[in-house]
Amino acid sequence: MIDLGTIGGAVTTVVFGGGAALAVIRLNMRGAFATVAALRQLTERVDTMEQQLASAPKHVDLAQMTTRLGVVERGVGVMEATLNGVRDSVRRVEHMTDLLLKHQIDGEARDR
């Protein structure tokens, strides 16, 4: 016949041993899981990052901006060349004006 005392002892050992093992596991894992507040904070941070990424320029936008920047760069180069030409013209006019003024001043000095 089956000895109930032996079975009862085995069951008691398993229950108390399992309970002790569970207590040790819970003790060791304390702090291993995030709190609800930490999860909410993390969720808010992820939501903020997703909103920022949604409003950031996409690849197509960056390509269009690069194209526009190239057009502006060429326009600035043309403007620089034009301004250099105007500067040279102004220098020549200034030189001629200086010569005319000097001639007039020298002529007035001779006429006296």
Structure description:
With 112 residues, this protein is mainly alpha-helical. It folds into two domains: 1-56; 59-112. The chain is 88% helix and 0% strand. It has three helices and no strands. It has helices at 4-29, 36-55, 59-111. It is rod-shaped. 0% of the residues are buried.
Which keywords apply here?
112 residues; mainly alpha
Name the assembly state: single chain
Report the portion of residues in β strands.
under 5%
The structural domain count equals: 2
Which residues sit in consecutive blocks of at least 5 with pLDDT less than 50? none
Span of the ends, CA to CA: 154 Å
Count of runs of 4 or more consecutive helical residues: 3
Please give the radius of gyration in angstroms: 45 Å
Number of E-state strands: 0
SS class: mainly alpha
Average of per-residue pLDDT values: 84
Task: Give, in order, the helices and strands.
Answer: HHH
**Dominant shape:** rod-shaped
The major pleated sheet works out as: none
* Helicity range: over 70%
Gist of the model:
The chain is built from three helices and no strands.
